[in-house]
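User: I'll paste a sequence; please echo it back and then give the predicted structure.

Assistant: Echoing your sequence first, then the prediction.
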Amino acid sequence: MLTAYVQSFDVADRIMVRHAMTFLVGLAGVAALLPIGRLVVGRWAGLTAIALCLLTGYLYGSLFFTPIDVPFLAAMTWARTVAGTLEPVAFVWRCPVHEPKKVFEISRKRAASAAWRAVLHAKLLVCAAIT
């Protein structure tokens, strides 16, 4: 609806306006990575996540040409940002690189599936790789 409203002003060609609006909504969605990265990893991670996303050709190109996926990206990233702000305990997962033994003990003690354990161990490996 927002795109149709902006197209009604006849600022440019209708297709050009559609691509521009899709790009602006996509940038707003990518901007939500800043608070998510800061909450999860630290101060530098938000800008790093934005830079990596914009340097990825597939995502950058999709910001112009996929009017279905880009609003979904924006809605989901901002919803996750708001959910993380409202309930930070469920959202924040700090990298326990200094205490990997503790993570593996939690993994053994918790009555959970093997998939949960695999995700936990993958997060540990990712955190170890970025620090």
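Confidence is low (pLDDT under 50) at residues 88-92. The chain is about 75% helix and 0% strand.
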